[in-house]
Amino acid sequence: MRSAASQSIRAEVLLQLKQYGRLMRIDKPIGFWLLLWPTLWALWLAGTGHPDQGLFIVFVLGVLVMRSAGCVLNDFADRKIDPYVERTRSRPIASGAVHPLEALVLFVALGLVAIGLASMLNRQAQVIAAAAALLTIVYPFIKRFVSVPQFVLGAAFGCAVPMAFAAQTGGTPELAWLTFATALIWAVIYDTFYAMVDREDDLKIGVKSTAILFGDMDLFVIGALQGIMLLALILIGARAELGPWYYASVLLAALLMARHLWLARGRDRDGCFRAFLENHVIGLVVFLGIVLHYTFTPVGSA
């Protein structure tokens, strides 16, 4: 009897932990990759191909923790909205599987872990980390008031770039801010695809987004932003004196961008969502271009 009760309690605990994992989006790593790739761009550029091993571990863990914390807070902020949106009504808080107070406790716990990781960085990196944390907290609420929340998300994600430069080099040179701007523009691109999936629901409940702001011009504006991002990537290559491997990755990124526009051409939910999901490959390709440059460029000629 006691064994059966113990097994029942264990099963309930495991089920609740699974719900917490869903709340943190552990089962959907796309956001982790979208945040990780620009962070790795920055670490490799700042370290000229040889980033500090300890910093690499801290930043990878930081990406995982902050992305999870952002998802928890986002679902808490949207707890009265998600039940009315087709894509989000099954989320843990919206479905009642996790109580809002539990979500807040989890967010605080993740925040404490993030603070612990930030304490391992230098002062300048900590200041930027504080700015990133503020943007992460503001983002879930700001989409009720401004039409460009994707820019806030981009700034929050992009803060990892100057933070990585500050931690690695002790400063934030021009290259850091150019890479930050690139990461910000990229976030607006992929999150606009994401917002296009929910556009009809968002219009009904009053949530704002660039997908709604751009309207029928959405794909044209996304295409223009993609062009700006490609130009920024070329400028990064010139500023960091990167070679053919990197520029080949930029060319491949351009082809991927064209594919994403084609996927979303009908503005249907499935096509737009696929364009969003596949965007992380652009970050991977650019990262591989940076790594291959530093791997195959002779020492002293980079």
Low-confidence stretches: none
The fraction of residues in strands falls at: under 5%
CA gyration radius, whole angstroms: 20 Å
Please state the oligomeric state of the protein chains shown. single chain
CATH architecture: Orthogonal Bundle
Structural class assignment? mainly alpha
- Count the strands? 0
What level of helicity do the residues show? over 70%
Instruction: Give the topology string: H per helix, E per strand.
Output: HHHHHHHHHHHHHHH
* Shape, per Cα inertia axes: globular
Query: What's the CATH topology name?
Result: Tetracycline Repressor, domain 2
CATH class: Mainly Alpha
Major sheet details:
none
Domain count: the total is 1
What is the rounded distance between the termini?
70 Å
User: Helix segment count?
Assistant: 15
User: Mean pLDDT, rounded to whole units?
Assistant: 92
Give your account of this protein's structure.
- This protein has 302 residues and is mainly α.
- It has one domain: UbiA prenyltransferase (Tetracycline Repressor, domain 2, Orthogonal Bundle), CATH 1.10.357.140.
- Helix content is 77%, strand content 0%.
- It has helices spanning 2-23, 30-46, 53-77, 92-95, 100-118, 123-142, 149-158, 160-169, 174-197, 199-205, 210-214, 218-239, 244-263, 269-278, 280-296.
- Helix 2 (30-46) packs parallel to helix 8 and helix 9 (174-197) runs antiparallel to helix 14 (269-278).
- The N and C termini lie far apart (70 Å).
